[in-house]
Design goal:
eight-stranded mixed sheet; 754 residues; 20 helices; 26% strand; seven-stranded mixed sheet
Amino acid sequence: MAAGSDQKKYKVIGTRPIRPDGADKVTGRAIYGADVQLSGLVHGKILRSPHAHAKIKSVDVSAALQAAGVLAVVTGADFPELKDKIAQLGEGAVNLAYLSGNLLARDKVLYKGHAVAAVAARTANQAEEALKKIRVEYEPLPAVTWVLDAMQDDAPLLHDDIHTDSMGNQSEKPSNISTHLHFETGDVGQGFKQADVVIEREFKTASVHQGYIEPHVATALWNTDGRLKIWTSTQGSFTARQQTAELLQIPVSQVTVVPCEIGGGFGGKISVYLEPVAALLSRKCGRPVKMTMTREACFEATGPTPGSYMRVKIGATKEGKIVAGEAYLAYDAGAYPGGMIGPGCMCVFSCYEFPNAVVDGYDVMLNKPKTQAYRAPGATHAALACETIIDELAEKLKLDPIEFRLMNAAQEGTRRVDGPVYPRVGLIECLEAAKASEHYQSSLKGPNRGRGVAAGFWFNIGLKSAATANVNADGCVTLLEGSTDIGGSRASIAMQLAETLGIAAEDVHPAVVDTDSVGYTDVTGGSRVTFATGMAVYQVGRKIRAQMMERAAELWEVDAASVSEADGVYSSGEHSLPFKELAVKLHEIGGPIVGSASVNPQGSSNGFGVQIADVEVDPETGKVSVLRYTVIQDAGQAIHPSYVEGQMQGGAVQGIGWALNEEYFYGDDGQMKNASFLDYRMPTALDVPMIETIIVEVPNPEHPFGVRGVGETPIVPPVAAMANAVYAATGVRMRDIPMSPPKLWKALAEKESS
């Protein structure tokens, strides 16, 4: 279902063609990372720390080197020394010394599963056996796995060279708090004095994993000519190339990354974990080396979301206007600095007009794997806090929860607490569509049932994209792009080129190619691909169209200025030819036509969404069943509505899992106790209903087709919507997430006994 009235009519955009990579994927012919097979291939395995925090006193690999089938062993000492060199990853920056230390530890291990050494052997079993022969002497240290504990002065210190950066000022003593952010607008004290109702609450969330089905995998061949080629499952081939080159201190032009098909990423396959290690092993043994993570390693040693502690206060007048907000956010960054606190601070009050607000955010290190992006990183946490309080305020003021949100909704001209002023945005339209929806207008009957709503925001980045296309003699167009296809972007990009050229979507044949075959393209993340790479192919299409007009003029022997194009048909006077027929003649009038373009759009495309959840709670067990769920989101312009709906549904389901069951569960020893899909409880098709969708289309003025990013916004509202629904069903406000059956049962029992 779609909502929106000010959209242009398009020939291709808005239709639902079959995805160009579909046949290979359903027949098993698509090449994923694990499918790569090269002559002489050997297998690499990684030895990981059994301790959550320990000094490495010595590493002895001599016995492993003598083991059957072993060809090479590497440790952290094999990496170049790097100090405070920063690299941009397309969705954030990283200190390369920390990234290198995360690949293979040197002086200390900082979490259970931290990589210590790697072996390459003729078979995977031989590599596993050789790992057992590596002798590592550890000196165990106290570990800390909860953010507030890590902030204490007497907490175990992870790094003795990191000091708190607070608005440019460095703390004197080393600290687990790497960064303190502060944003302020208006006069918060005065704002709260104007409030008739003030609500302040505390919230806690656990770390959750992206849950991609395909584990990390990479194959590296360091050739005798000095060139390094990597086949990998990555969200950004150029990002993987840059990280690998920087970490190994070799020219980026000597590294080629071939992106394989990817079995999910959601932000977790941006940073490298295996590629540089496989490369070093390959250089030592002179063979291509394949490395694949176990599922346990994916959980214990790759980046989940941060756990968080939040304290948020919001005040409103009795008429229903928000006048002030205050937020304290502490997010864990894992073992190294550079977590998701910045986006959390940006998003906490992003959906509403806050004339007076202050936000303080803390990036905190502790003995967990380095956190990484997971679909709108940091925003889901912040939305839980804000949207729960918004719901409480609406209840106290006796206002419909959507009506209260409409009264305060961010719109064009609204200034966020972190500074940016919104251009044309679609939150009001989303709220209106939610309020008018059949779901919201329906009744929800029965005991222990409740309905909750929540709004969410993600800014959606632009960044750099490139594309190249050439016109074939049969009138079809071959399109080369560098954006890894995770959610159907081959189709959405090809459709935008087809629309620009006035040809059918099926006449554009897209291919995601390696880093030597197309211009630099940033990571597939930040909801940027359909937006930014779409802008690149729009420019490509315009260049091809201009060349086609020149060729038509040459063919007809007319002035080029007299040639026009409409809907793929080129005309001048009595002359007229459609794109395909003109393409057939190109070899007679100048030869092939090629178009290339690169773009670097700045700013954000501003995605807003609203979600409605109906639940039923079993008071005997605390189990929550989702009865009905609707996602409403502003896509700007839905290029391929099926893929937009899929993104909306997928994000909502992941958020439902986050709300109800998913969490990293740590023991007192700092060990993760549920590092498997058996014990880490993700929702299945049996746990959720069909997710209903309403696509709102408020065109983005910064894109030629009005596109907004859609991939991340849908994970922002679900946790809050589910918490509000659980409250409506039980009268219990759950502020410690996930709302797993034991937690909810305990809260219900306490309510019953009070």
